[in-house]
Amino acid sequence: MCFDRAVRLAELTGEDGLPLDEWRAERDAVREDLLAHGYSQDADAFVQSYGSTAADASLLRVPLVGFLDGRDPRVLGTLDHVQSRLGEGGALLHRYDPEGTADGVDGPEGAFLLCSFEMVSALVLAGRTAEARDRFETLCARAEPLGLFAEEMAPDDGSMLGNYPQAFTHLALIEAALNLDASGTTDELHDWAARGG
């Protein structure tokens, strides 16, 4: 992704003297490698690491950054895989399974709200707008009285966990709202906002 964005930025700015051909070649090589090894036929999804079937909610970014179209069967399989392995408490998602990942973090984590809102955006790009809207409304209904969110949420009682307020959560919320708005669910989104969210 870094190579792709560096190439795009250089093309937009007209910056001279950069090794764009090398960057393009490296970008293409990374893409081919990810498509060949990052997707598991067994899981019918992109996975956390090569040779694994573990889910990772960061893979919701695959359509959001334009790596693949949101309706690509591999993306659809990934959305379902992430939901089935990491979903909890309705619209909430964990970012990965800490018990199956040697990440050095001790103990359980709450649901990661950035990932929960990114699922909304990914569902919109997958054409599943009704499901996306329902998730968005469910998540927004769990905001604190001032409409703020933390980094994580306890699925059982809705307690905010981690950094509060968390800017990344709110950026994902805004991205989800923009994606819903662009999908043609504008009237429903405005009606929901008019009812007080």
Describe this structure in words.
α5 (113-125) runs antiparallel to α6 (129-140), α5 (113-125) runs parallel beside α7 (167-182) and α6 packs antiparallel against α7. It is built from 8 helices and 7 strands; from the N terminus they run ααββααβββααββαα. By secondary structure, the chain is mostly helical. Helix content is 50%, strand content 7%. Residues 192-197 have low confidence and may be disordered.
Give the biggest beta sheet: 3 strands, antiparallel
Quote the average pLDDT. Answer: 88
Q: Give the number of helices.
A: 8
**Order of strands, widest sheet:** 5-6-7
Q: How many runs of DSSP E, i.e. beta strands? A: 7
What share of the residues lie within helices? 40-55%
Topology:
Blueprint (H helix, E strand, L loop, with lengths): L1 H12 L6 H18 L1 E2 L4 E2 L14 H4 L8 H14 E2 L3 E2 L17 E2 H13 L3 H12 L11 E2 L6 E2 L5 H16 L3 H9 L3
Antiparallel strand pairs: 1-2, 3-4, 5-6, 6-7
Short summary of the structure?
The protein has eight helices and seven strands. By secondary structure, it is mainly α. α5 runs antiparallel to α6 and α5 packs parallel to α7.
Features:
single chain, 197 residues, mainly alpha, 3-stranded antiparallel β-sheet, two-stranded antiparallel sheet, globular, disordered C terminus
